[in-house]
Amino acid sequence: MKVEIITIGNEVLRSETRENNGEYLSRILTGSGIEPVRITVLPDDQDLITEEMGKAAGRCDAVIVTGGLGPTVDDLTRQAAIALFGGQTELKDEITESIEKRFRELGLQTPESYRDLARIPAGARVLPNSVGAAPGLALKYGRSEIYLLPGVPAEMHSIFQSFVLPELSGGDGEKKTVIQIFGLMETSVEERLSRLFDERLKAQISITADPAGIKLYLPARLVKDDTIDSLRKLFGSHIFSIASEKMEDVVIDLLKNSGSTLSVAESFTGGLLASTLISVPGASESFLEGFVTYSNESKEERLGVDHRLIGRCGAVSEEVCVSMAQGALKAAGSDIALSTTGIAGPGGATAGKSVGLCYIGMAAQDSVYCRRMQFPGDRYTVRLRGVYVGLDMLRLRLSGEKERLSKYIVTDR
């Protein structure tokens, strides 16, 4: 099956948004055995959208278009599709009723601009939107099926997972097994894979890397009965998932299964660690409290960090990081606490402390850990790397991996 992805929006072309719909769709499709042959980004230009949709449909079995389905003047995808189908439209009362119901639930009047969303290309199937107002649409064009999805990621994900993926994944594409790894460089992962697969087979494995870890996409034919066991021996505790689970999902499950509670004290991550944790449903069973102690004064007042310690060692130091973790542990009454302090950049460097220098701490009743890191990347990337190093330290602790953690022990109590 050949599939193309088209994302719409001037803001996407100008990098005015962290649009990741194309990446998301490609990742999910690839994991289902359907590798997209092309991803195209288009501006808010109705004629160009119509032209590209028609060309893509002529080349492929399915075209997925995201963005431009809303009620504003720059939402032109629906009109482009109407033009592609010769201008013939129909009104769908079910769309109007769904939109009016959603606004009633919000205690608001339905804006007139939303009512036009019920005018769709004749013959199109409506794909209900359980998250937002604009529905998705499915249209048959020659041999191809065109799916129009909203650009808002949460809405797009919901419609794609509920309607589009089930239709597409019934094909004969080869499924992929996803192995997720943390704590190794990409080159080290490739070197270890050479011990298990020859160059021909290794070339069929896709490897992606980001601050949340490394993903290996293995074609199903390479995954024999003993392959997973062999991979576990190769990578050990660096493997945190053999599925699509995120690190935060794994950590929350481990916390719940162990009956442990967690608190966090953040400086350079600025709440990103807590936000990542509570993005997981059910996190409230284990996550007690988060402290964003950005200033030295807040570290002292909220966490009990001694101002003399900050004066002697600096806020970005192992000593302060450890004191922050211990302070959060005591203040929240949790079983485990994580802490972060560092220089996210682009400014803030001092003599002997460059941008990207960070400390990630973890405190429990029996021991305290701290890891010194020098992260590359922009401000957001440095913060995100700190989040996932902290989560991985917690994962190792909860899963009983003592050997790798032992090098970061500060003190035993």
Q: Please, how many helices? A: 17
The tally of beta strands, per DSSP, is: 18
- Give me the CATH architecture of the largest domain, please: 3-Layer(aba) Sandwich
CATH superfamily of the largest domain: MoaB/Mog-like domain
Provide the residue-averaged pLDDT.
92
Percent strand equals: 15-25%
Q: Report the structural category.
A: alpha/beta
Helix amount: 25-40%
Principal-axis shape: globular
Radius of gyration: 25 Å
Distance between the termini: 59 Å
Low confidence ranges: none
Widest β-sheet, arrangement of strands? 2-1-3-8-7-6
CATH class of the largest domain: Alpha Beta
How many domain regions? 3
CATH fold category name of the largest domain: Molybdenum Cofactor Biosythetic Enzyme, Chain A
Largest sheet: 6 strands, mixed
Subunit organisation of the chains: single chain
